[in-house]
Amino acid sequence: MSLLAESAMNKALLALLVLLLATAVILLAWAIAEPHLLDTDYFRLGPKGKSQRLRLSAASARPAQRDASSLRLAFFSDAHARFLFIPVRQLLARIRQAGVDAVVFGGDFSSSEHDLPKAMRYMRELAAGLSEAGIPLLGVMGNHDEYLSRDTAEQTGLILLSNDSVLLPAADGKPWLLTGLQDLKLGTADLTRGLATWHSAAARLLRPAEQQTIEGRPAQLPATPEQIPANRRIVLAHNPDTILSLPEGLFSWVLSGHFHGGQIRLPFRLEYKMLRHDRLCKQGYDQGPYTWHKSGLFISRGLGCVLLPFRFLSRPELSILEFSPDR
Question: Would you call 105 helix, strand, or coil by DSSP?
Fold first, then answer.
């Protein structure tokens, strides 16, 4: 090989190395920045898994006027407070703008006991801001919440569901049922029990006019949650795989998180195949709405990060979900 050819090859290799290094730096910078970039996604969710995504800008628009029978929730999951970079004030502003009836959290307050105090401060500030607007905050535990007790969680102002239910009123006077289940790792996701058990705060969530009591029981609170028709029942369960064991026909939608949308998305879904034992993410169910038999499953990408403070092609997400019982 001539000296000229060898010199040209060395220059080409150097240029390739510089290009690869520059690409790596850009990708790393994006992965560092992405956890700070909150997406607000709007969806209409109907019976039998019907869904419609609304293309709205969180900064300039909100869902249109809704039916009196509908329920509008703000849903987020997986705070993982250690690597949570979305300010409470930003989350509150997005929620207030959307005009929701309640805020629902899908579990994983923290990643370990070390960041639990930070998680409690975050939830306390969020619950206080929502309370000023008259918006309740409800949630369940996730697989990382083994160091959290129900009492500690509810001291923040959040209503923690654990195989029990609450009513969320709609404008037409026909309430929706929200049933929160225990996490698959920490307990038993018992929908039968959840549909037979009211949370102690169930009556408190009703509007003042609906809180009249008869013989000590709220007049508008059915004897058991299962008296609410299935097309007005929403199940909250941290792990989407929970739906695999739930009886069909007993709910309209399941809201979950856990998968983080992959957090750092890799080709061929390697992030799921290499790092997770869960089933649904390996089958392609990892974020957004899906039809599941005669019901629906919605999976949040979550807010925070686990293990590493990075996200790539999976931005933090606040979902504004408008449920309709019949369309």
Answer: strand
In this structure, which amino acid lies at residue 254? V
pLDDT at 213 over 50: no
Distance CA 200, CA 166 (A): 9
Residues in CB range of 309: below 8 A, 6 or more apart: 32, 35, 83, 85
Q: Give the start-end residues of each E strand in the chain.
A: 39-45, 51-54, 71-76, 102-105, 137-139, 159-160, 164-168, 176-180, 213-214, 217-218, 233-236, 253-256, 288-292, 295-299, 317-323
The residue among 54, 74, 83 whose CA lies nearest residue 133 is 74
- Dihedral, 55, 56, 57, 61 alpha carbons, nearest 10: 170
CA gap 245, 266 in Å, rounded:
29
Query: Order of strands, edge to edge, in the sheet holding 164-168?
Result: 164-168, 176-180, 233-236, 253-256, 295-299, 288-292
Mean pLDDT of 118-142: 97
Tokens read off for 323: 């449920």
Whether residue 63 is predicted with pLDDT greater than 70 in this model: the reply is no
SS3 131: helix
Those residues whose C-beta lies under 8 Å from the C-beta of residue 187, and which sit 6 or more positions away, are: 162, 163
Residue 208: predicted pLDDT: 56
Pairing of strands 288-292, 295-299: antiparallel
Return the sign of the alpha-carbon dihedral for residues 301, 181, 253, 324.
Answer: negative
> Amino acid identity, residue 12?
A
What does pTM read for this prediction? 0.91
The DSSP-derived string for 174-211 is: --EEEEE---TTTS---HHHHTT-B-TTTTTTS-GGG-
Task: Compute the C-alpha angle 220/298/41, nearest 5°.
Answer: 100
Q: Report how far residue 128's alpha carbon sits from residue 134's, in angstroms, rounded to the nearest whole number.
A: 10
Residue of 106, 115, 124 lying closest to 82 (CA atoms): 115
pLDDT at 31 (0 to 100): 93
